[in-house]
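Notes from the 1:1 (GR / supervisor)

We went over the backlog. Supervisor wanted to see one worked example end to end before approving the batch request, so GR pasted a single chain during the call. The sequence is below; no edits were made to it. Supervisor asked that the structure be written out right there so they could see what the output format looks like.
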Amino acid sequence: MRKMLALWLLVPSLAYGGKLPVFVNVTKEAGINFRHTFGDEHMSSILEATGPGCAFLDYDQDGYLDIYVVQGCYLEGISDPDSPYKGRNLTNRLYHNNGDGTFTDVTEEAGVGDAGYGMGATIGDYNNDGYPDIYVSNYGPNVLYRNNGDGTFTDVTEEAGVGCPLWSVSGCFLDYDNDGDLDLYVGNYLDFDPDFKVCFSAEVFPGPLSYAGQPDVLYRNNGDGTFTDVTKEAGVYNPEGRAMSVGAGDFDGDGDMDIFVCNDAMGNYLYRNNGDGTFTEVAEEVEVSMGEFGEAVSSMSPDFADYDNDGDLDIFVPDMGYCCLYRNMGRYFEGVTASAGVAAVLGQYTSWAGYFVDYDNDGWKDLFITNGDAHHLYPEEDILFRNNHDGTFTDVALQSGDYFTSEEYIGRGAAVGDYDNDGDMDIYVANLDGPGVLLRNDGGNRNNWLTLKLVGVKSNRDAVGAWVTVKAGDLVQVGQVGAGGGY
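Structure output shown during the call:
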């Protein structure tokens, strides 16, 4: 999951002459030695196949993006009793950016080593003190870490009232009521029954439709460090949802944040904000509930951006099929996955995290997608699409570095940000049962670039929900600050 502390809008000035930027795997030289595990020797349940996530954040406000990654663990009654991970201290990790291209593991001194079965993390300054806080979504109770502003965090889950005990995969901070502080939407997945798996072999473990869904939770920030569950009164209670990820954006341009929920093996939800503290579910009405051909898809993680530079937010949803690219037409969305040239490539993969990212600084949002098999420990290569400026994309993965030709990783979550402050967007990928990967963008900063860090005064401190418009000649770019997406 990525947190947008700064909104990036690129001002193009140079031509590439056919030479594209490349991404270089710098994980080892950066000092990042994290390796994810699902806590078992053999993957034998949908729980073990889901996650992990990650996030960029500048937790110490030194101007450099740090990295937070979530970890799995041995689970009594779920993991194999003979698992080599039984009894091991497996925790989430926080890597401090040293400002020289390297990172230091500061998990212990920072106090953010949650030992739960981690799924994802979302970043937001919920108490408006100027320092980003961390909300961890788990299989089991979630955790809220309050940033103390001195390099340490405090677990305030109980006093804040946000320790959702369900299987949560994703969370999203947003100020849905425009009262100046960040609220929290938590996406919950399945009512997982650990005893159900024993009837099946590891390779045919039950899928999402074998389990009941669970309701998501909307927490309203009370402004005093506590939250109140307003799910039902806000109109977002759906007991049979199967949320894989959630995100928020002002899709209709009316000044308040709407909520998009990616559900697995069923229709998605789009909650339109009514501006009075309530929402109306309109996914079917605006044509983002199903896939482009009217089928329910296994949606994974949404991202929102104006990829066609027409002034509104479009949506990309990775899934187990061809993925879904929804173009915002004003009153509804048009499925353009096939016509944009994306479906033909992605149909052969299981896609998990997808991000709009202008990796070459030409003023047009490109697409990065992580891939990995859902039922087996089979690696799949990730994909990078370049925006052709005409509504279509071209697969440029093979031209963008050796990483994209390696079949070493089982992709899941990802985060996007300029960790080395050189003017182009880098990527961290969280892989299932394997090492995370830090990809440095080399050459993406050949064009001019502009970084804006927005600070709310009357609004929430992170300025989540704020819009920025940049004009460079005939090119007009818009972007909205968000906090969510992915795991």
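Supervisor's comment: Residues 46-49 form the longest helix (4 residues).
Batch request approved.
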